[in-house]
Amino acid sequence: MARYRLDNPFPEYGYFGPEYFCDREQETEHLMEALLNGSNVTLMAPRRIGKTGLIHHTFERMKAKDKKIQCFYVDIFSTKSFNQMVQFIANAVMGKLDTPSQALKKKLNNFVSALRPTMSPDPITGMPTFSFAIAPENARQSLQQVFDYMKESELPCYLAIDEFQQISHYTDIGADAYIRSIIQFVPNVHIIFSGSQQHLLADLFMSPKHPFFNSSQIMSIKEIDIDKYRDFANGFFARQNREIPADVFHYLYQAVDGQTWYIQKILNRLYRNPKEALTESTVLNAINTIIAEQEINYQNNYNLLTENQAKLLTAIALQGSVSAPMALEFTQRYLLPAASSIKMAIKSLVEKEFLYQDPQRGYLVYDRFFGMWLKRLAT
């Protein structure tokens, strides 16, 4: 991956190398150790806490350790079927394990009888790139051919399938069993099954009724340590001859529950004004600006909710977190409907990712900025 100096060192999306990646040393070592010792890994974490960045950072460290290592990342969140998932994986893997030569074309031809490949040069590197169209009836055969291709390379291959819980929504019967049946016979390929809907991933990998039961090492990640994050941030603010005081960073960190993406977004805004003092007031101004930019989106999301869903979500935003949403004290305080209606609303809000259930704190509004918007709407 080409490296260049970012004008703003707090990117909101993407992985730009170790310089812009905060901490996660223990998590990186843990994930590397598991993969390099032959384990598949199920990585569970809420959305926007930094699991995708951790995957890319780990892959980078692994490739630096051994030049033969091949790493592939694919996000299947937008897929609606097993066939689409196979196509995403095929496009991520096929054609990437050889040099652009006749040998590559010959090898590809041995593996793509069920795929319809097209080859075109990358506009930047000139290297050949492939895309594949897969007929639904050929999806299983095609997936087998993708793994055969990796196996035939005899190179150590590591594949991250992000938002893997999406397969729970496919109508294809036995998709998980078929995937399991393939990967257990490909010794040079190891997989990270990553996802943000932890209840679905836990069901897939920790329930005896599913084929993936006990098939991988379970791993989760938490918030980055507040002091390490502040030191990381100040390393960049020093370029502007500024420093974010401990109490101010604590205010910022607590405002978004230590969630990585939200912290990055606020820091990105603070860095844009190099002459501005780093105070609680400027942090609040940055948050207000971000929320104002999303006002239309938040209003549209709110309008999609039923009355009961809106009441419950707003009540949880006001409370901060709720471990017992059907408790009498909570329902009476916020004039909520009957317990059966609350239960239905919770189920829908969790499925739509408006709510997230934290093991320690209970239910929280998933999007922290949306939660702030809801709180202001009600006060």
| Tally of DSSP helical segments | 16
**Sheet/helix structural class:** alpha/beta
The biggest sheet, with number of strands, parallel, antiparallel or mixed sense and barrel status, is:
5 strands, parallel
Q: Note the beta-strand portion.
A: 5-15%
Rounded to an integer, what's the Rg over CA atoms? 23 Å
* Major β-sheet strand ordering: 2-5-6-1-7
Name the shape in a single word: globular
Helix content: 40-55%
Care to describe what's here?
There is one protein chain. The protein has 379 residues and is an alpha/beta fold. It contains 16 helices and nine strands. It has helices at residues 25-36, 51-65, 82-93, 102-111, 139-153, 175-183, 198-206, 226-237, 246-255, 260-271, 280-293, 295-303, 307-319, 328-333, 339-351, 368-378; strands at residues 41-44, 70-75, 116-121, 128-133, 157-162, 189-195, 217-220, 355-358, 362-365. The strands form three sheets. It has a five-stranded parallel sheet, sandwiched between helices. Helix 6 (175-183) links the parallel strand 5 and strand 6 (189-195). The longest helix is centred in the N-terminal third of the chain and has 15 residues, at 51-65. The protein is globular, with a radius of gyration of 23 Å.
Task: Please render the helix and strand layout as text.
Blueprint (H helix, E strand, L loop, with lengths): L24 H12 L4 E4 L6 H15 L4 E6 L6 H12 L8 H10 L4 E6 L6 E6 L5 H15 L3 E6 L12 H9 L5 E7 L2 H9 L10 E4 L5 H12 L8 H10 L4 H12 L8 H14 L1 H9 L3 H13 L8 H6 L5 H13 L3 E4 L3 E4 L2 H11 L1
Parallel strand pairs: 1-6, 1-7, 2-5, 5-6
Antiparallel strand pairs: 3-4, 8-9
Helix pairs in contact: 1-2, 3-5, 5-6, 10-11, 13-15, 13-16
